[in-house]
Amino acid sequence: MRTVQYIPRATEKAYTEEAKNTYIFYVPKNASKQEIAKQVAAAFKVTVVDVRTAVRKAKPTRFSRGRHAYPGTTFRQDHKVAYITVKAGDKIPVFEETKADDKKADAQETKAEKKTAKKAAKEEKKVAKKAEKEAIKEDK
To answer: Angle at the Cα of 91 (from 40 to 36), degrees rounded to 5?
Structure first.
């Protein structure tokens, strides 16, 4: 069994399918359903229930080599997409927030707390200066 990288599709459809325990991946065109199931089960430690595949045909696209040069058409590449259904309760953490995202959120919260603490300290200094000025005026 060869090791192949499966690329998850981050689209709205993929996120809605995730609620049904179905995950969508781009896979190599020559990969069979059995190979896909084994690879995903081994990589993400889940139980694969069903694998559906679809080959999306390439579309022609126009190009030009300049204003007076000849125009032409070329083709995009075909894509094979696998819809992988896993057992209820199993999750593939591809589309979920990672701990790095949580750390970023925590860092932003601490930044905000530091800012508010700085503002409070600044206000205290202003109040202390005003009190000193008033004390000096009273002494005179």
So the answer is: 15
Cα 40 from Cα 46, distance rounded (Å): 8
Contact between 109 and 58 under an 8 Å Cβ cutoff? The reply is no
Sketch the domain layout of the chain as residue ranges. 7-86, 97-140
Task: Tell me the pTM.
Answer: 0.60
User: Which tokens hold the place of 27?
Assistant: 């896979």
Taking the alpha carbons at both ends of the chain, their separation in whole angstroms is: 92
Q: How confident is the model at residue 4 (pLDDT cuts 50, 70, 90)?
A: low
**CA–CA separation, 23 and 93 (whole Å):** 10
Instruction: Assign a CATH topology to domain 7-86.
Output: Alpha-Beta Plaits (3.30.70)
Closest CA to 15 of 114, 80, 96: 96
Based on its alpha-carbon atoms, the radius of gyration of the chain, rounded to whole angstroms, reads 29
Q: Is it the case that residue 98 has pLDDT exceeding 60?
A: no
